[in-house]
């Protein structure tokens, strides 16, 4: 009987100890700050692409926001790799002027590029834009690129056509490894380390969430039924202007044999 009483007492003490330990763990987990211990799932990178201005000459603005502070990623660089559709073109001479004025850091890498060709004789072009950190947002980057409409074929009925600008590839390169990069990196892409550098770096192709699926631009086009009228008026104006120039040359010009 004495042995049984001792055994019962021991079991009771064990049960009470287990209950106290469970309560302590629950209290500690409730009072612990968010993010302590096991790291929470990685947040998303948010990309916003929009087109500014009106008319045939537009500005493509790309903003990137990281879901968490990137104070530890100050040694990282962000590169936007964009494919410009055939309905648009980027002027390489304009890009050179903007780089000299330190407005944007973009360069074309497509060859045999013709800015005068219409959209149906053009090819998709590729542009690299080195994004800059936003001064008003510690975990934001932005990239700027001027784009222009190409001439399109006239339509038989519709007076407009549409250009779809797909979302770009987002690349990141860091001088040192960060565990958080594993959340976003998908693959590696070879690209110049900097705008004026010939050295090639292996950039991480980052996955992100876009606010807009794609950007669609509306372009006015001519109608085929106006072809005869436009050609006739153009020819008439050309003949008239040429005649006026010849009359002015013979009237006010000085000729010597």
Automatic annotation (TrEMBL):
Glycoprotein among keywords: yes
Membrane-related topology note: Single-pass membrane protein
InterPro entries given in the database record: PIG-X/PBN1, PIGX
Annotated metabolic or biological route of this protein: Glycolipid biosynthesis; glycosylphosphatidylinositol-anchor biosynthesis
One CC-aspect GO term: endoplasmic reticulum membrane
GO terms (BP aspect): GPI anchor biosynthetic process
Subcellular location: Endoplasmic reticulum membrane
Biological function: Stabilizing subunit of the glycosylphosphatidylinositol-mannosyltransferase I complex which catalyzes the transfer of the first mannose, via an alpha-1,4 bond from a dolichol-phosphate-mannose (Dol-P-Man) to the glucosaminyl acyl phosphatidylinositol (GlcN-(acyl)PI) intermediate to generate alpha-D-Man-(1->4)-alpha-D-GlcN-(1->6)-(1-radyl,2-acyl-sn-glycero-3-phospho)-2-acyl-inositol and participates in the sixth step of the glycosylphosphatidylinositol-anchor biosynthesis. Probably acts by stabilizing the mannosyltransferase PIGM.
The protein's name: Phosphatidylinositol-glycan biosynthesis class X protein
């Amino acid at each position: 009987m004495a042995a049984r009483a001792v055994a019962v007492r021991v079991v009771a003490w064990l049960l009470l100890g287990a209950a106290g330990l469970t309560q302590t763990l629950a209290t500690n987990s409730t009072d612990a700050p968010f993010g302590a211990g096991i790291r929470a799932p990685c947040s998303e990178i948010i990309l916003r692409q929009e087109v500014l201005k009106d008319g045939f000459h537009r500005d493509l603005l790309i903003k990137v926001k990281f879901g968490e502070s990137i104070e530890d990623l100050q040694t990282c660089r962000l590169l936007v790799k964009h494919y410009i559709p055939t309905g648009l073109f980027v002027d390489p001479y304009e890009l050179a002027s903007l780089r000299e004025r330190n407005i944007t850091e973009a360069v074309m890498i497509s060859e045999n590029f013709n800015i005068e060709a219409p959209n149906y004789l053009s090819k998709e072009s590729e542009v690299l834009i080195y994004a800059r950190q936003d001064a008003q947002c510690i975990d934001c980057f932005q990239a700027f690129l001027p784009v222009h409409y190409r001439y399109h074929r006239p339509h038989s009925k519709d007076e407009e056509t549409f250009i779809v600008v797909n979302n770009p590839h987002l690349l990141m390169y860091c001088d040192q490894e960060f565990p958080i990069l594993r959340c976003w990196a998908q693959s590696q892409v070879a690209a110049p380390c900097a705008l004026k550098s010939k050295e090639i770096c292996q950039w991480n192709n980052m996955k992100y969430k876009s606010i807009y699926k794609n950007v669609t631009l509306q372009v006015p086009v001519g109608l085929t039924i106006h072809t005869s009228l436009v050609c006739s008026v153009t020819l008439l104006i050309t003949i008239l202007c040429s005649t006026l120039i010849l009359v002015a040359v013979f009237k006010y010009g000085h000729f010597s044999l």
